[in-house]
Amino acid sequence: MSDTERKRPNILITGTPGVGKTATASLIAEQIGFRHVNVGDLIKQHKCYDGRDEDLDTHILDEDKLLDLMESMFQECADENKGIVADYHSSELFPERWFDLILVLRARTEVLFDRLSQRGYGEKKRDENLEAEIMQVCLDEAKESYDKEIVVEVHSNTIEEMESNVDRCKIWVEQWIKDNA
């Protein structure tokens, strides 16, 4: 199905681990009736990896396997007249045609430090993620990978900010549907 045939937009929620991607994506999908795809969970469930990096305490991603799996999900949702809200810490590996909005969540370092510590992240992994947030790695990656007009940076430090982000997304989706009817 071509992009012009889609009746619903697809949204990618991205950002450094711990900024609230999954919680935000889940709320948005629930409130607008879209399918939530937690890409990290998808990778684990379908074993889309080629081994493990023990230093970083993470799997080594098999991008081809993941993208093939997701391609069929996007087609299925388009056929069902349903949009997708995906969340993942990286945005550059996905085809541009998949997403109409890239929401980059950001958090203050002290908030992120507490969230990553509560998750039990080791010092090295926590510090690398904090550095990535300070250096706005996820935001820059999104801006380099997609049309800058569809990349939106929002703060995700509090429940109120998360709720505001969800509300803004709902309004954006309603407008996208009107504009593409």
Automatic annotation (TrEMBL):
SUPFAM superfamilies referenced in this protein's UniProt entry, alphabetically: P-loop containing nucleoside triphosphate hydrolases
Keyword line: ATP-binding, Cytoplasm, Kinase, Nucleotide-binding, Nucleus, Ribosome biogenesis, rRNA processing, Transferase
Any one Gene Ontology molecular-function term assigned to this protein's record: ATP hydrolysis activity
Primary site of residence: cytoplasm
Positions that bind ATP: 18, 20-22, 119
Gene3D superfamilies linked: P-loop containing nucleotide triphosphate hydrolases
One of the Pfam families matching this protein, by short name: AAA_18
A Gene Ontology biological process term: ribosomal small subunit biogenesis
Domain of life: Eukaryota
EC number(s) reported in the record: 2.7.4.3
Family from the record: Belongs to the adenylate kinase family. AK6 subfamily.
Subunit field text: Interacts with small ribosomal subunit protein uS11. Not a structural component of 43S pre-ribosomes, but transiently interacts with them by binding to uS11.
Record's function text: Broad-specificity nucleoside monophosphate (NMP) kinase that catalyzes the reversible transfer of the terminal phosphate group between nucleoside triphosphates and monophosphates. Has also ATPase activity. Involved in the late cytoplasmic maturation steps of the 40S ribosomal particles, specifically 18S rRNA maturation. While NMP activity is not required for ribosome maturation, ATPase activity is. Associates transiently with small ribosomal subunit protein uS11. ATP hydrolysis breaks the interaction with uS11.
Descriptive protein name: Adenylate kinase isoenzyme 6 homolog
Source organism of this protein record: Thalassiosira oceanica
